[in-house]
Amino acid sequence: QTLLIHLFAWIYTFEQWRKEFSQNLFVLPLSTDISRFQYLVGRYLGIVSVVIILSSSLLLIDLVLLRVIEQQWLFFPLIQIFFICLSAILSISCFYFFVNITSPIQAMLYCIALWFIGHGLDEFVLFSQADKNSLLNIFSQVLYYFLPNFSVYDLTSAIINRTNITLYQLFFPIIYTFGYSFILIYLSCLIF
From CA 178, how far away is CA 182, in angstroms rounded? Predict the structure, then answer.
């Protein structure tokens, strides 16, 4: 489901921007009294709402299936789907930032690359902490805080081991998504 939601988000966002660039449709709304900020934020919220609807339908399907199969309510997988949705929202924000700098296909490729890099950042930081004063450790810390960190959305170990999830693990991904997305959308509006 992680890959399904992200692929949908990337392809849907790419298709919307590709159609707009190929038909020069972005000039039309900007010829009215709509500001660039309103235009970009409106398009962003429209695509995010479509991803939320897809995630909600998957959440509903999982809720029913888990209830039927497990004969109990399991909330860890449902929380994981919610975090996958947050991860897709952050990925869409990255796409919006890159599409203002490059073409839509390059923006999609950069988002996919960032998604894979972002999932491995925590392992890279752990690997580089063997030598505290090394250049690799400093580089990994810079990457960890500068690039989108998609590993904060992964609660797989807690779900598999059925351990308690702390409030920090619940609320940090939400705050991280909206904070990082706000920064990327704001920078996109400045660039556009």
Answer: 6
pTM, two decimals, is: 0.77
43 conformational bin, left if phi > 0, alpha if psi -120 to 50, beta if neither: alpha
Q: Can you say whether residue 163 is alpha, beta or left, with left for phi > 0 and alpha for psi between -120 and 50 degrees?
A: beta
Tell me, what's the pLDDT at 84? 83
Region class of 71: left (phi > 0), else alpha (psi between -120 and 50), else beta: left
Taking residues 132-146, what's their average pLDDT? 78
Cα–Cα distance measured from residue 47 to residue 151, given in angstroms and rounded to the nearest whole number: 23
Residue 47 has pLDDT above 80, yes or no: yes
Give the pLDDT mean for 126-149: 78
**For residue 74, which phi and psi values (nearest 5 degrees)?**
-110, 115
